[in-house]
Specification:
The chain is mainly alpha-helical. Helix content is about 40%, strand content about 10%. It has one domain. The chain has a 3-stranded antiparallel β-sheet with strand order 1-2-3, with no helix packed on it.
Length: about 90
């Protein structure tokens, strides 16, 4: 056999049996493929719906994104969009 330089690359995948959240090499990823946040996942899912099978290391921790935060963001974004549309309408 020849002398090959072998990589120490590893791939570890963990999936939460409760919600299906996925961690690759310890990093949470959203279903979209975007890098996720354990704390946001805790605030949105684990703290409300998790049980003893939840594997999120930050389950039970306060902070991160919550549905209340997202509702406020949606409300503010809608208000801004509504104002922008009214401003455009009034120009005509």
């Amino acid at each position: 056999m020849s002398d090959l330089n072998l990589s120490d690359l590893k791939l570890e995948r963990k999936e939460c049996p409760k919600c299906g959240a996925v961690w690759m090499n310890g990093q949470h990823y959203w279903r979209t493929g975007a890098i996720g946040s354990d704390l946001d996942l805790a605030g949105l899912v684990c703290n409300n719906y998790g049980d003893n099978t939840c594997i999120n290391p930050l389950k039970g921790r306060e902070g991160g994104d919550t549905w209340d935060d997202r509702f406020v963001d949606l409300t503010n974004d809608f208000a801004d969009l509504h104002k922008k549309m009214n401003d455009e309408y009034e120009k005509d």
